[in-house]
Amino acid sequence: QVQLVESGGGVVQPGRSLRLSCAASGFAFISSAMHWVRQAPGKGLEWVAVISYDGTNKYYADSVKGRFTVSRDNSKNTLYLQMNSLRTEDTAVYSCARAADFDFLTAFDYWGQGTLVTVSS
Amino acid sequence: DIQMTQSPSSLSASVGDRVTITCRASQSISNYLSWYQQKPGKAPKLLIYAASSLQGGVPSRFSGSGSGTDFTLTISSLQPEDFATYYCQLNYRTPLTFGGGTKVEIK
Questions:
Q1: Among residues A66, A29, A67, A72, which one has the least CA distance to residue A50?
Q2: Any bridge partners for residue A111, and if so which?
Q3: Dihedral, CA atoms, B81, B11, A36, B48, nearest 10 degrees?
Q4: pLDDT digits over B17-76, tens only?
Q5: Average pLDDT of A51-71?
Q6: DSSP conformational letter for A10
Q7: In a mutagenesis test of the B interface, which of A108, A113, A116 is the best target, namely the one with the most B β-carbons within 10 Å?
Q8: Interface of B with A (CB under 8 A)
């Protein structure tokens, strides 16, 4: 079955960096666009970034552009989110999600449970 | 960027009620809209894609409609397991914005 398992969250000071990982299994990772979505405590869902199946196309929310970088290693079935210059407003549960189709402009059919990132001094 | 406005932000309903949630896009997005259900502490679950297509395994009491700028999610007969928060999301172009959410609570 499809599984997405995030890791790498924790407590970090403002201005510091953190790298999240999302380990995928149970499907053809190499054929799937992948997204990162976050949810601040008690708040709604916010789309963060997407990477195409082959890693050549990447798009970001304005709130993270220039600070976050999405990447993937298809040989390891793993998605990454490098987060630099972290701010307190980046505090959230970060989840990876699979695009339901080859094209990333489609619904997200599988989600991980998420990893909590807390940015605090 | 295209804005997604969901209404209401919360509602109270009883088991068996018909529930309708609306989502409005700030410009036309054709049928590039999906709906998700999220329960506390759980990952969102895809219910509807392409505005009106039911995701596999989702009960038929859920339905979606609309095109252009106005969309609805309808639960024909609310069940105890349907109390949750529902989100719409545009899939037309990036940023793939979510609506603010609608919390469905027990009356």
A1: A72
A2: A97
A3: 60
A4: 999 999 999 999 999 999 999 999 999 999 999 999 999 999 999 999 999 999 999 999
A5: 97
A6: E
A7: A108
A8: 1, 32, 34, 36, 38, 42-46, 49-50, 55, 87, 89, 91-101
